[in-house]
Structures are given as structure tokens and as C-alpha cells.
Amino acid sequence: MNLRRFLAVLVLVLQTLAVVVPAAAQDTQGAAARLKTSADTAFDAKHFEEALALYDEAYAISPQPAILYDRGRALQYLARYPQALDQLERFDREATPELRAKVPGFDAVLDQVRHHVATVDLQCAVPGARVLVGSVSVGTTPLPGPLRVTAGRQRIEVLAEGYYPFHRDLDLPGATVTNITAPLESKDHHGLLVVRSAIEGTSIFIDGAAIGFTPTEAALLEGAHGVRASHPGFDDASTQIVLRAGQEKDLTLDPRKKPSILSRWWFWTAVGVVLAGTAAALTIYAFTTEQAPPNGNFSPGTASF
Hints:
By secondary structure, this protein is of the alpha+beta class. 40% of the residues lie in helices and 30% in strands.
């Protein structure tokens, strides 16, 4: 092929591309717009799962910042707050001022979602341990950074082969960072104590340190340990246990219901003291206020009928 012919073919190819590429791009934009319209309809009908799936399809075709906002709102209504916050913060970073101006209540929405999200900064010295939040695996140690989780009551678990698991049930406040250290204990030097109670919400203390609410567990160095169960309205229950390395021990410890005040020995002792004092006071009063017999106009034994 000579140079003249090559250039002619090249011009023809470029002309074809000039027509085909814009048409393809236009068709792509049209497909994304149609998907977004369908997603908006599903969102308005409160079919948030369907809306989210359609928004995801639209974004995959045409990654526009406006769809980030839509995805964030759908995730918010599905109570998937950490993912919603990620999407809304991306929208905040990527949206043009003109697009941002079309969402006048955005700052309030962003603040509302942030208060549903807690941040957990978890540290663990054992590499490769699995980290679970609410029974869902979120990565392995060392984690690349803090975790975002739904605020409220959450169970944090860290698991590694050859170590006793770390469990904590925590109340995680929204818009706050909670620092957690997970000290995984080797089974070569530690035993595992599981503590239960028939009384819901019982707090457990081991060697004076609070470890959580029953049922709860702790990996402890082999040897003797003091265990105390506490609950409002109950008397504490305490015991001593001895653990061997590698042993798993199950303990049930129930606080004792506080007896009625009427069954307390000191109550009746106090009542007796009060009654005795009252009786003595009445006796003294009677003696000190007794009067002499009155003087009549006849003497005893002289009256006649």
C-alpha cells in the first residue's frame, strides 16, 4: 500500500470514528439516563433495594456524581449507614458547585447520616486475625484503617488460630471514634472462662476488672482468679476459679435478690429499740403525770344507801 492510499484509508477510519464514537457515547448516556429515571421511580415508591440496584447499573455505565447522591439516599433508607456515608462524602468531594446547589439540604442529610455511623479503631498485635462486626467479616489484622459501622450495640470479634477469641459487646456512639485493643491470648499459657447468669444484664468482673455483660468470656492466665457478678437491685455474687492453660471452663453465677427490709435482722432490732424507748417514755409520762385522789364530802366506808 503506497502512502497516498494509506492516508486515504486513515482519513476514512477517522471520519467513521468521528461519527460512531459520539453516537455510542450518546447511546450510553441515554441508557444511563433511562436507568436513573427508573431508579427514581422505584425510590419514590419506597422500593429502595430496587432503586439501589438500578442506580448501581446507571453509575457503572456513566459514573456521574449525581448518582452518588442518589445511591447514598437509597442506602440511608435501607439503614446501611456506613455505605451511605461513603457515597454522600464522595458526592460532596466530586460534585460541581452548580450540582451541589441543586441539593440545598445536603449538609443536614450528611450530618444526619454521620450520627448513625460509629468509627472503630481496632488494634491487635496478632497479624492475620479475622475481624467480625455483628458476625460479618470486615477484614484481617492489621486493618488498613479505622472501621465504619452502624452506631449502637455491636459485637466485635477477633479470631486467630491458636488463640482464644476476643469478644466485646459495645454501645458505639455515632459520629465518634472508639479505640479498641484486642489482646488475643495464646492457648499455651491461658485458659478460657465463659460466665453466664440467669439474670439478664448481669455485669461480670474478673480480678476487679469489668469484662462485660453475661453471657461473656475472657481468656485468662493459668491460675486462680476472682469472679464477681453484679446487677442493680441484687446482692453481688462472688467466687474463685482456677484455670489451667488450654482449659475452657463454663461458670454460672447469679446475683442474689436483695431480701425485703422486713426480713433484715437489723430492721427488727431497730424497731425493738424504738418500741422499747417509746414504752419507757410512756411509763415515765404516766408516773410524772399521776394525780392524788380527789377530796370528797365523805370518807371511804361511811357511805350508806
